[in-house]
C-alpha cells in the first residue's frame, strides 16, 4: 500500500499551503492534484471545465489521483471535489493518512475573494456561484470529507504552520525521516 499524507477539503481551506509546508518539514515531495491535471492537459482547470464540462474534469481528476496515490512518501493536495466519486474515496482511504482541512464558509469566501488564482483555478460549480455556492457545497460535501478523513484540522483556529506541525505529530509519532521512494511530480 502506498503511504502518503493526503489533504482533502473544500476550496481555499489551505490544502496547497499546508501541503507545501508539511512536505518541507518531512523532506518529502509535494503534489497538487490540480497542478498535475493542468500539466497533463496543458490547460487551466477553468479551461478544462469550459471545454469538457465537469464530467470531463472529474475524469481527469480521477486519473490524476490514481497516478499520485500510487506513489509513496508524498504529500498530496487534492481538489475540493476529489471526494465526489466513490472510487476516489476508496483510493484516498487506501493510500495513506487523509487529513480533512476545514474552515467556515465565511472564511472560505473571504479567501476566494483575495486569492489571485481563483478565476483560473476555481470555476463556478453551480448556476449562481458566489457565497451561496460556497455555503451549499460545503454542506453537501461534509459527509464525504468526513468519510475519508483520518482526522480533521480547522483553518479558522490554526495557522498553516500549526496545522502542518499537528499533521507531522500525527504521522508516525512525528517522524521527520524521508522515505526511500516518492516522486510526486507530473
TrEMBL record:
Binds 1 Mg(2+) ion per subunit. InterPro entries: P-loop_NTPase, Shikimate/glucono_kinase, Shikimate_kinase/TSH1, Shikimate_kinase_CS. Its EC number is 2.7.1.71. Substrate binds at residues 34, 58, 80, 141. It catalyses: shikimate + ATP = 3-phosphoshikimate + ADP + H(+). ATP binds at residues 12-17, 122, 158. Monomer. HAMAP family: Shikimate_kinase. Belongs to the shikimate kinase family. This is Shikimate kinase. It comes from Frigoriglobus tundricola.
